[in-house]
Automatic annotation (TrEMBL):
Keywords: Signal, TPR repeat. Pfam families: GGDEF, TPR_12. This is diguanylate cyclase. NCBIfam families: GGDEF (TIGR00254).
Length: 705
């Protein structure tokens, strides 16, 4: 939610010195300004708010002092520029965006007059950071383009990377995720070329955040882990709160709440140790999102309120919108709708002003949920439509899936069963794309790679130690031989031999011990690999089976049929649909409806045997594949299957006067006009609907033209 683009590139060493002086002077001024307000407060949230409130008068005194110094230094443009640059860094350090913007704009104008391109780049990039904070992404994009144009005049890979970083942030906030990913990849390539480790970590994190928004979670996880490792290797580690928060957000999307919570707590602990109120507010806001998603509304309300207090004190308009959205969600979850609605409307307005697709869609969906609960269905439907239109263009799949889920509930309450079914299918398609079999396998492979890497590092360390011991033993033997050759006395010779023998014995003993450690590590690695293979098999079964009935899921079933048809072999399919299934759910409840599906599929598998695969096609529709079976034989099997299912379902039916039956459509590939899987399934579907049209509880064969 909060961006990580907050680090200036430093192409010249004097920029570091100026910034260091600015931070030291600003810290001294701020301490004198907030000492009374902060004492005896120890809570980081209260200290951050006190810091923000005390910064403004300090900034005013700084501006006044700079103006006096400026007038006194007329005729000394170089000193005037240094003074203005010092004030700009101080105002930025004091989190006074308006005063900082005034200073950087003035410094940019002065640099243009003096034709100092480097100073122009510094000022433009600093203004871009400020635009990131206040949410003006149109101007942020324009500033990034300006920096790119200047780097054409004076080549500067570091500033070019910074420009791509700003452009990527603006594109992501506008929902242009593919373009944002391109920009961040270019920034990463430049920073890798420059061997800028801190910049690489920043670009990896930004690219990972973009991949997360695209729903490409495996790539995002690898990128964020790589960024964290770079941060941890820095001395001292920097921006750990950002790295842990990004990983927490990813684990939240991957439905791993324990990992998400652990990383959020690490991020919160790291943020509290940094003297940066906006960093603390960023983690608080993101943690509130997770808590709202987990249903922990009371704590989410506390954290969102704390983040709002800090961001409001700092004037961070972009993050205020997120804080209000999460505060509104928490209040709504606690049942305080009258308090939640104003917060959500303010978040919606702020999101529209800043053109933040994610904030706008989130506020619309939360308002739609409230209206759905209060039966304002027309208004709720309109809001969901707006959210879907926004998210379709932005390709934000997690939010888009949530929007289709809300729409399904609305269409159900409106009595539009067709619309509800369409919305439910769209929701299931998006969820399958987000967390599919391929993603599960790649995540398992990634975890295996990390586990293997740790053991490889341990084995490498032991191998290096063994090599050193072997070299040392060789050296000792050479020394012993040389001593023996030069020895003129038998007694001295025997003494030296005894001494070298003891040394060699100890070294060989150590070497044997190290070899045993290597063997133990190898066996441990084999055990881990066996465990990972077993987990991979379990994950594959979860990814290919319907969780309710245990039969094949739709994707796996269609893959089986495609492989069979590709070998140019005949196949018949039975499309089985449970009659009046919605009425069964409405009369007897969804749990009984699930029991009907389970008993029916069990009867199918018992009747057909293990040689004929059964899969869930969608909802209450199931697909049976009869490989190398003629059309007549397929019809016989379908009729006997219908009767077997009727007997099994009658045994659990609490309403014998209303039997539970199925309708079956039968189609054979060799009798289809076009011998493709799509046409075959369409023929079976049409035959099934003909069975329903002729009174249900029957089979119907597709007739060739």
């Amino acid at each position: 939610m909060h961006d990580t683009t907050l680090a200036l590139p430093a192409p010249r060493r004097e920029t570091h010195r100026v910034r260091l002086r600015a931070w030291l002077i600003g810290l001294g001024m701020l301490c004198s300004g907030v000492s009374e307000a902060a004492d005896p407060i120890s809570d980081p949230i209260a200290v951050s708010v006190a810091y923000a409130r005390a910064a403004h008068p300090v900034a005013m005194r700084l501006q006044h002092a700079t103006e006096i110094g400026w007038r006194g230094l007329q005729g000394f443009p170089a000193i005037q520029r240094s003074l203005l640059q010092l004030e700009a860094h101080l105002q930025t350090a004091l989190s006074e965006p308006q005063d900082a913007e005034r200073c950087w704009q003035r410094l940019y104008t002065l640099a243009v007059q003096q034709n100092d391109v480097r100073m122009q780049l510094t000022a433009l990039h600093a203004r871009g950071e400020l635009r990131t904070l206040d949410g003006n992404y149109e101007e942020l994009h324009a500033l990034g383009e300006q920096i790119l144009q200047l780097t054409e005049r004076v080549p500067s890979p570091s500033y070019k990377a910074a420009a791509y970083n700003l452009l990527g942030t603006a594109a992501r906030r506008h929902g242009q995720l593919d373009r944002a990913a391109d920009y961040h990849e270019q920034a990463l390539a430049l920073r890798s070329m420059l061997q800028d480790r801190s910049g690489q970590a920043e670009s990896l994190a930004n690219l990972g955040t973009t991949r997360r928004d695209q729903g490409r979670f495996v790539e995002a996880l690898a990128l964020q882990h790589e960024a964290l490792q770079i941060r941890l290797r820095q001395s001292p580690p920097e921006h750990l709160d950002i790295a842990y928060r990004n990983l927490a957000l990813l684990y939240r999307e991957l439905d791993d709440p324990s990992q998400a919570r652990m990383h959020f707590e690490k991020a919160l602990d790291a943020a509290r140790k940094r003297p940066m109120p906006n960093a603390l507010a960023s983690v608080l806001g993101s943690y509130a999102v997770f808590l709202n998603d987990s249903g922990e509304y009371a704590r989410a309300q506390v954290l969102a309120g704390q983040a709002l207090s800090v961001d409001a004190s700092l004037g961070n308009r972009t993050y205020i919108a997120l804080d209000r959205l999460q505060l509104g969600r928490a209040l709504s979850g606690l049942g305080h709708r009258s308090e939640a609605i104003p917060q959500l409307y303010m978040a919606l307005q702020a999101g529209r002003e800043a053109a933040q697709t994610e904030i706008i869609a989130g506020a619309l969906l939360e308002l739609a949920r409230i209206e759905l609960d209060t039966h304002a269905l027309t208004s709720a439907n309109a809001r969901v439509e707006q959210a879907i239109n926004l998210l379709d263009g932005a390709r934000m799949m997690p939010l888009l899936a949530d929007a289709w889920f809300v729409r399904e509930r609305i269409r159900t309450q409106l009595g539009d069963n067709a619309g509800a079914l369409h919305a439910l299918r769209r929701y299931m398609q998006l969820r399958e794309r987000l967390i599919g079999a391929r993603s599960v396998q790649r995540i398992a492979a990634l975890k295996s790679a990390y586990q293997r890497q740790r053991y490889d590092e341990r084995i490498g360390e032991l191998t290096r130690n063994n090599t050193e011991n072997l070299l040392r033993a060789t050296q000792h033997r050479r020394t012993r031989d040389l001593t023996l050759a030069l020895s003129g006395s038998l007694i001295l010779l025997l003494g030296l031999i005894w001494h070298r023998y003891r040394v060699a014995y100890r070294l060989h003993h150590e070497l044997a011990h190290k070899h045993r450690e290597v063997e133990a590590a190898r066996r441990a690695l084999e055990d881990v690999n066996g465990t990972l293979r077993e987990q991979s098999r379990k994950l594959y079964r979860l990814a290919t089976r319907d969780p309710l009935t245990g039969v094949c899921n739709r994707r796996h079933m269609l893959q089986k049929l495609e492989r069979h048809i590709a070998r140019e072999r005949d196949v018949s399919v039975l499309l089985v649909d449970f009659d009046h299934f919605k009425q069964i759910n409405d009369r007897l409840g969804h749990l009984f409806g699930d029991q009907v599906l389970c008993v029916g599929t069990h009867a199918m598998r018992e009747h057909l045997g293990s040689g004929q695969p059964v899969g869930r096609f969608g909802g209450e529709e199931f697909l049976v594949a009869l490989f190398d079976v003629s059309a007549d034989k397929a019809a016989e099997i379908a009729e006997s299957l219908r009767k077997a299912m009727a007997r099994a379902l009658a045994a659990i039916n609490p309403e014998p006067q209303t039997p539970i039956t199925v309708s079956i459509g039968v189609a054979t590939l060799s009798q289809c006009e076009t011998r493709t899987l799509k046409y075959l399934l369409g023929a079976a579907d049409r035959a099934m609907y003909q069975a329903k049209a002729h009174g249900r509880n029957r089979i119907f064969r597709h007739q060739a033209l």
